[in-house]
Amino acid sequence: MSRIRTLLASAVMIVAMAVPAMAQFRPWPNPLPPRPNWGAYDEGHTWRAADWWWQNRRQWAVAHHPEWWGDFDTYRVWHPAWWWFENNPQWARLYHPEWWGAYYNGLWYPASWWWQYQPVWVQASYPDWWGNFFQGIWYPASWWWLMQPAWIQANQPGWWGGFDADHVWYPAGWWWQFHPDWCRVNHPEWWGDFDDDREWHAAPWWWQHRPDWARENHPTWWGDFDDHRVWHPDTWWYHHNREWMAQHHPEWIGDVDNRHVWRDVNWWAQKDPKMALQRHPQWAEALRKSVETQHVEYLTMVQRQHAGEQKAFEAQHAREQRNGYEAHMKQFEALNNKHSAELQTLEQQHGEQQQKAVERARQQELERQHASQVQELERRRNDQLQALERQHMEMEQKAEQAHVAQQEALQQRHQAQLMALERQHTAQLQALGARRGEAMKVPNPPRAPSMGGPGGGASHKHQ
Question: I want to staple 269 with a disulfide (CB 3.0 to 4.6 A). Which of 80, 150, 290, 392 is the partner?
């Protein structure tokens, strides 16, 4: 996808992604603090901004400052995350769901800025912007997993995510967006779903802001609120307050895995139903019910994500067509302006030559020469217009071919997801000794959200 400035899209997205009024702001500092000044000193003690490091020392930036969010445009110029959200927000949201942040007064600010100046609002509005302060500066989970992994494993195992093949850590939302099958097979405990804008939110966000929807669409997300109205999954409760959990939620049955992490029956139904059945034969009915319920949950999630992708894909295609037409009209207008200027210059030269012509024969020759020049100018203009139209038609044809190819790829990916989901479901039922025809009946798939829209364990590298 071409990374171009899309001012119209920016205006639309700024309105659509305005800061939600989920909680009250505390008084702002005056004047309003600027966005972070990302950068560091080099070995010569010269200050270099983040773009210099990303363009000249990329590996160093990846290894030391994963919180410097940004990307390169088509000209290999690096821009910070806020530039993308203010110039091409659709692209930023599509390809970088790990860039957490929100708009304020038309400008986009990263999560570190919000945590610094409005921590209460962030905690209430975006509980899945995972991170913490270190030496007075807030860092996202990607920094903590890279710099302080032992601290996370001991204190925040619910910051779900993993390292990719390049040892870059991404949160669960990124993995669910780009590798949903891998997430479902390897990390079913990374609970979350996509809203109507294709933005993935972890289960705590849903339970905090859409509890009725979470209860109806994801009944296997077991958890509860603590005394501070912070929602935690059942695994957290097991390790922090086992007695309270047994007293208030006896239905939360589970067992420890080979890493000594307690997992509920729903996790076992996805990861290893055969082992769970061998250890706990009394779980047979609960495992079968969980397999069927989660199958419906995942199927509905895949369908919802696909519908959102189709919608965003068509919107992006329409936007690119509009941008292409506007660019074509600008080229057409520039060509006409150039022709008018050349014709005006030619007429002025002709007038000056007429005034200087003394002999009639010379004047007639000038007239013939002028007519020939005008004719040549018109011919050249027509050739340029025809070439411009041919170029525009070729670009439209290529864009349409690319659109069709992308559409087919999107559909193929969706079908592959459905097939993988069905294969997994069949294998789970076979492990439980039930054939597809014997599977228990479950209600119809839950409704998609009508609103405007990880637990734990150590992070694992994606194989």
Answer: 290
How far, in Å, are 1, 20, 178, 282 from residue 402 at the CA level?
A: 10, 36, 20, 54
Contacts of 131 (CB under 8 A, 6+ apart): 111, 112, 115, 138, 139, 140, 141, 143, 144
- CA–CA–CA angle 252, 417, 233 (5° rounding): 20
Would you call 260 exposed, middle or buried from its count of C-beta atoms within 10 A (0-12, 13-18, 19+)? exposed
C-beta of residue 349 within 8 angstroms of C-beta of residue 370: no
Asked whether the bond before 204 is cis by omega within 30 degrees of 0, the reply is no
Residue whose entry in the numeric block shows the structure tokens 């802001």: 209
d(CA 25, CA 23): 7
Structure tokens at 242: 């086992």
What radius of gyration, in Å, describes the C-alpha atoms of the chain? Answer: 30
Residue 101's DSSP bridge partners are 110
Backbone phi and psi for residue 456, each to the nearest 5 degrees, phi listed first: 130, -140
Shortest CA distance to 194 belongs to which of 314, 316, 306? 306
Distance CA 130, CA 221 (A): 19
Tens of pLDDT, residue by residue over 166-212, are 999 999 999 999 999 999 999 999 999 998 888 899 999 999 999 99
Residue by residue, DSSP assigns 346-386 as: HHHHHHHHHHH--SHHHHHHHHHHHHHHHHHHHHHHHHHHH
Q: Do 265 and 289 contact (CB within 8 A), yes or no?
A: no
Alpha carbon separation from 140 to 146, 245, 257, 406 (Å, rounded): 10, 30, 28, 33
Q: Which of 223, 401, 190 is nearest to 301 (CA)?
A: 190
pLDDT in tens, 31-69: 999 999 999 999 999 999 999 999 999 999 999 999 999
Residue matched to tokens 């509905």: 300
DSSP string computed for 241-255:
-HHHHHHH-TT--EE
Sorted by sequence, the CB contacts under 8 Å of residue 121 that are 6+ apart come out as 22, 23, 24, 25, 26, 114
Cα–Cα dist 454/159, whole Å = 6
Q: What is the number of H-type helices and E-type strands within the chain?
A: 19, 16
Torsion of CA 409, 419, 299, 462, to 10 degrees: -80
First to last CA, the chain: 26
Beta bridge pairs of residue 160: none
Q: How far apart are CA 257 and CA 276, in angstroms?
A: 10
